[in-house]
Amino acid sequence: MQKIRYELDPYNRLVINESGAKSDLPKFRKVLDGRFKTDKNNNLSYHIKAPLSEYDKMPNQVKLSGQWSLTDKHELRLTLDKSARETFGDKITFQGDILDVNKNSLLFAITTITKENTRSTYVLNIAGSWKADENNRLSFHVRRESGKYDILTFTGIWEINKNHQIVYRYEKAILIRKKRQTHTLTFKGYWDIKDKARISYVLSGDTDSVFDFNTSIGTFKEDYIQYEVGIGLTDRGKRAVQTVKLSGKWNLKKDAGLIFEVEYENKITKAIVFGAEARLTDKDTISFRLKNDRENKDMGVKVELVHKIFKGAGEAFLRALTSKRELAIYAGAAWRW
């Protein structure tokens, strides 16, 4: 019985290899035109457009199972399960580029070619959630069955743009032009602070896609909040430090507490909400000791703000604080003022 093996050609098409071993000889290899697709659990299948006549018993689609990962060149790879390796080898690596990133998906652009030498590009949609790993690197958790997931790790350094968004850049070689092309991925979200040694970037309130970065205690000033985040590049034995500086303004809200408002893209403003214990100082300022707004837990952070920056509800808070003299007034989850 002749052994048949499947391979992936440079145009992301399945190829039948009749020799049973990896081969570049045309007489042993036949190309199957088709496209790859994923289901809701990111299981991969190849949908064949027109099976070859000598393989009329071949199904319209070939299903593949394995573990997803990201190569150092930012290519998508599926390492096949043992049951599939007899016919497919150890892994399938797609040639292509990361097209875009959304709050719960990663879009990978794949270029293919037909028998008539017509090129076309389609998108492989990988569903999951975004997280930060223990080294503060960006990672994508690929959703699988039974609550399991595979992890795609982005080993480069992320940055912050002028709109306070996380940006990730990587380079890939263009072999035909003998040049390198830079790809830019922008994560659209907003910043939040709940613990003294952690700052979070939330991609959406209705998903669990959140980058929780471990860090030292931040710097809190009148017009900015700043953190230094260490990014461990374990594969290179190095460590980089990324500065997260959020420019904005402080305010007080009766129904929320002490807030820091940050302006994002298209002038959209999001507030970081804190609980706080406040006291007057002898320097015409108010000293706030920040607390987690949900648990009223002390964050170990103080910020001094001048009286004049508060308006509306803040003025009422200042009058209440003045009337109490040395007594603290709480604003936030356990506010009383």
Short description:
By secondary structure, the protein is mainly beta.
Q: Which characteristics define this entry?
A:
mainly beta, 28 strands, single chain, 2 domains, 2 helices, 337 residues, elongated
Description of the molecule:
With 337 residues, this protein is mainly β. It has two domains: 1-65 and 75-125, no CATH class; 189-337, no CATH class. 5% of the residues lie in helices and 55% in strands. It contains two helices and 28 strands. Strands 21, 22, 23, 24, 25, 26, 27 and 28 form an eight-stranded antiparallel β-sheet that branches. Strand 18 (190-195) and strand 19 (198-202) form a beta hairpin. The chain is elongated and about 90 Å long. The chain starts with a strand and ends in a 6-residue tail after the last strand.
Main pleated-sheet profile: 8 strands, antiparallel
DSSP helix fraction: under 10%
Low-confidence stretches: none
The total strand number stands at 28
Shape: elongated
What would you report as the Rg, rounded to the nearest angstrom?
27 Å
Order of helices and strands: EEEEEEEEHEEEEEEEEEEEEEEEEEEEHE
Assign the structural class, choosing from mainly alpha, mainly beta, alpha/beta, alpha+beta, or little secondary structure: mainly beta
**End-to-end CA span:** 85 Å
Count of domain modules? 2
In what range is the share of β-strand residues? over 45%
Number of helices: 2
User: Quick check: average pLDDT?
Assistant: 84
Summarize the SSE layout with pairings:
Elements: E1 5-8, E2 14-17, E3 29-32, E4 34-38, E5 44-48, E6 61-64, E7 66-70, E8 76-80, H1 85-88, E9 91-93, E10 96-102, E11 105-113, E12 119-132, E13 138-143, E14 149-153, E15 158-160, E16 166-174, E17 179-187, E18 190-195, E19 198-202, E20 210-214, E21 219-220, E22 224-233, E23 238-253, E24 257-263, E25 269-280, E26 285-292, E27 298-306, H2 313-324, E28 329-331
Antiparallel strand pairs: 1-2, 2-3, 4-5, 5-6, 7-8, 8-9, 10-11, 11-12, 12-13, 13-14, 15-16, 16-17, 18-19, 19-20, 21-22, 22-23, 23-24, 24-25, 25-26, 25-28, 26-27
